[in-house]
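Objective 1b: paired records.
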Amino acid sequence: MPTATPGVEVGDIDAVVHPGAFHHVVFTDVRVPASCRLGPENEGFTIVRKLLANERVGVARYHRAAGYLDRVAKWCDERGLLDDSSVIETLAHARVACDAARVLVYQVWDERTRGLHPDESAWVYRTAAVNAERAVSEAAFKLMGAEALVRHSHADNQFEWATTAGIAGGSYEMQLNSLARVLLGTKG
């Protein structure tokens, strides 16, 4: 449906990231012709779940998060912190989260190239990508201490991505709900 349809209002949502990153849509007495419907009547959630399985899988959030983790590791190295096993453990935990998301997205791509419909794999990948973003953010704050609070520090920059990771590309909760429905064998 065109956003220029009478009664459709699109507005910005102020967020922790740059303006225009998030929007809301308000429908007021909108008349939508049947030609704009994407599928059978009352099957909207089925369509939404399919969209969530395909949305943003190509965005390598884990790769960007791993890049920030590399910067944090370099920051630690420059300060002689890599001799501390707790620092290594913190970095390793975040690296494992990034690598897990990377392996899962490979599974999604593999299933797609074989003509399968990787809904469940995509939902698992999306949750893993969010977990990776958050793990790197937590590691950066833990390791950088007060310097993490400086505007545009590695921790601050990663925090912006981690904060929005569970919203952009299908909310974290929607991904988990979709997985739960499949695992429990419920419809909806």
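Objective 1b, second protein:
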Amino acid sequence: MKLFFLIFSIWAFLSGAGHADDKLSVNFGGYVDTYYAYDFNNSQILDRSFTTQPARHNEFNVNLAYLDAKVSAERIRGRFALQAGTSVQSNYAAESNLNKHIQEATAGYQVTDRLWIDAGIFLAHIGLESWISKENWTYTRSLIADYSPYYETGVKATYRWADQFSTQILVLNGWQNISENNGSKAIGAQLAYNPTEKISLLYNNFIGNELGARRRFFNDFIAKYALTDVFAIAGSYDLGWQQTADKQSNSVWQGYAIFVRYQVTPSLAEEDFPTTLAP
């Protein structure tokens, strides 16, 4: 019921704002991502371990399909998207049968020319790789992508200090969960800097209590560099700490991924990447 109230409130807000703004527009869209995967290390089990995409072995299936509606006006924006697929079954396994099919339900208001406030269910601020395959350089995901959030629920404030620099502060329910699961809120931050049109630098973090009120501190560093119009490289490094069960020390994990991209044609590119995840 709380989720229905959230969705209703978001779209009631957008509809109300639309009555006051004749420039309100609503755009509908959709996306279907299908696949066939064969795992040479997993020939007896259909569900693939340690990954969300592709999640199944030796079968044709739908990785992700969604329908969405985007609302925009002079000072408002919003998106509502419903989804299904094997990646949803795998990555949203901890969510209820209803919640897992909501990809986004978010509304935003532009307070000033430089400040946006958005609230609801939205795609995560962390990570080089997106939940949506067509937005990534590679189809399959790196280990560090699958072991960091793809989605979040909360409120975020984004402030653009200049054309090249912006910051974001978030208050969240937790580490990739739609409904609250421990009564403790988490916070996150993002620093985005683009010194030139060819270079992009990002820092993201997360601080919150997870797994029985054990403090988690996660850091994500991202760099992209376009060497030419058709050749680019990108890298991501993750470093996290979490309190042990007795809260007397911390467990540490880290991982990295490096991507190389060559644009063969305007609509076709080739990529390669090494990735690792270490305790």
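The first strand starts at residue 25 and ends at 37. Residues 1-101 form one domain.
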